[in-house]
Design goal:
Layout (H helix, E strand, L loop, with lengths): L19 E2 L10 H6 L6 E3 L9 H7 L4 E8 L2 E9 L12 E2 L4 H14 L31 H5 L22 H6 L23 H15 L3 H10 L41 H4 L2 E2 L1 H15 L8 H7 L12 E3 L6 E8 L2 E8 L5 E6 L4 H16 L7 E3 L6 H6 L2 E5 L10 E6 L2 E6 L3 E7 L4 E3 L6 E7 L2 E6 L2 E5 L5
Length: 485
């Protein structure tokens, strides 16, 4: 059983009782950790109106998230790390493990670079030779357009299955080949090569699972051990692991929570799709990963050569590189990723030029809302050039039209644990959108038929299609739910 790491002596009360963070390095301009904890910011700022800020404890309760672990990087070093939790979370500290979900993909990309350097595999040749005895299904690939490891890593291999739901801790767990074949007890369909490799971007956890098999077979070692030897240990990520499930004796781990605050059965689901979603980590360990990649990019590390780091960070279609998104130029250039497993949501971003960054790990399905607000608070406290709330000008809603749209709506496309039900409701002189995950959120009119939710960034349009009223929520269409008689 692992022993929880102690926090700084400044944290003299139980973490479960209050939020607590390690003290940052002295900077002469106050304590940014304190400003961040009291300065969470929503996604939307209404022009001409004060920008509201929120206390992190209030937002934990608002989003039904039990705990959040944060690490802030300044000038290439961890400036501070800490956790905030509600009392029901139990004991958590900076050594507590969280599922990082799709953030795993960046570590997989780095592992592939390391094995390519050693001559164990090649990134730009057909991947088939590394898959035997399993074979890629017949699809749109051919000799001129092969499925390669690089294309699997940058989501241009034409491979299907975007993500994975995870396996309940008490049930059967599919093997990786069963998952690729869509054979019982797999919870997802078979992986296919549906579009011509190299022709388009399509986010694919299935592609990363193919890559997982290729890395294991060509390196003749289990994926988790390869990660330990080639990535986690060299970068000093001592608490991190790709063990799925975690060993029974590992007690210092967060327990995932659904959107309503109820706990994931067994505390976490199992993800045998290790390359796509298998990482358990801490905020500080993930910060070490981001720092290590930047150091290599600068030519200041032998973990990767500068050329290898540049290859890893070279954005392709839709700004996706080999497991990370890379956006911006100059002082804005950064790599980042988010992740979402059942009951866990996470995000990180790292600026390449200045060496500033942030990691946020949460144990709640609504943690993406919380994480976005924390990143904005960090950006404001440290004066970053990005991650500011988006400015929106208030408009005048046509009240007569809006009244026609009050009621319950169902999305045409919906993925969620709870009922596919949204509600538009007038409250006082304003409107709210009642969402399946977080419940009511305030709407602000931006035009005669358009509104926005400052809290979530959801844009709502009151529209008509083929003579019928519909509500557009983001890019998705919702149709009215008939009232029960």
């Amino acid at each position: 059983m692992s022993t929880p790491r102690r926090l700084a002596a400044a944290c003299l009360v139980p973490l479960a009782a209050i939020g607590c963070a390690l003290q940052p390095a002295a900077r002469g301009d106050g304590d940014p950790a304190t400003r961040i904890a009291g300065g969470l910011r929503q996604r939307i700022a209404i022009e001409g109106e004060p920008v509201p800020t929120f206390d992190i404890q209030d937002r934990l309760r608002r989003y039904h998230v039990a705990s959040v672990s944060i690490a802030v990087i300044r000038r290439g070093k961890i400036d501070w790390a800490g956790v905030h939790a509600v009392p029901a979370a139990g004991p958590v500290d900076t050594g507590t493990l969280y599922q990082a979900a799709s953030i795993s993909k960046g570590l997989t990309g780095v592992l592939a670079q390391r094995l390519a350097r050693a001559g164990t595999l090649q990134l730009d040749t057909p991947v088939d030779a590394c898959l035997a005895p399993w074979r890629l299904p017949a699809g749109r690939q051919d000799a001129a357009h092969p499925v390669t490891l690089r294309r699997l890593l940058d989501h241009t291999a034409g491979v299907t299955v975007s993500g994975f739901p995870g396996y309940p801790a008490a049930g059967p767990v599919a093997s990786v080949t069963q998952i690729l074949d869509g054979a019982p007890p797999s919870l997802t369909p078979a992986v296919e090569v549906r579009t011509v490799p190299g022709s388009a971007y399509a986010y694919s956890g299935g592609g990363y699972t193919v890559a997982q098999v290729a890395l294991e077979h060509c390196a003749h070692a289990p994926f988790a051990r390869l990660m330990q030897d080639e990535v986690l240990q060299p970068l000093g990520m001592r608490r991190s692991t790709f063990a799925q499930p975690l060993p029974a004796g590992e007690g210092n781990r967060a327990r995932g929570h659904y959107a309503d605050g109820s706990e994931v059965e067994g505390g976490a689901r199992i993800y045998p799709e290790l390359a796509a979603a298998g990482l358990w980590t801490t905020a500080s360990d993930l910060a070490r990963f981001a720092i290590g990649i930047r150091q290599a990019w600068q030519g200041a590390s032998d973990f990767l050569t500068r050329d290898e780091a540049s290859q890893f960070l070279r954005p392709g279609l839709d700004n996706y590189a080999q497991g990370v998104f890379v956006v911006g130029e100059g002082e804005h250039k950064r790599f980042m990723h988010s992740g979402g497993n059942a009951g866990f949501k996470s995000t990180y971003a790292m600026y390449l030029q200045e060496g500033d960054g942030v990691v946020v790990l949460t144990d709640g399905d609504n943690g993406s809302y919380l994480g976005g607000e924390i990143v904005k608070a960090v950006a404001a406290a440290y004066g970053w050039p990005d991650f500011k709330p988006r400015g929106v000008r208030r408009g005048v809603l046509d009240a007569t039209v809006a009244a026609r749209y009050a009621g319950a709506w169902r999305l045409d496309r919906f993925e969620g644990r709870f009922a596919n039900r949204y509600e538009l409701r007038a409250e006082g002189d304003g409107w709210v959108l009642v969402m399946p995950d977080i419940g009511p959120t305030r709407l602000v009119p931006t035009g005669s038929r358009t509104l926005v939710a400052p809290e979530t960034g959801e844009e709502v349009e009151l529209a008509t299609r083929d003579g019928q009223d519909v509500v557009l929520i983001g890019a998705r269409t919702a149709h009215r739910i008939a009232a029960a008689h």
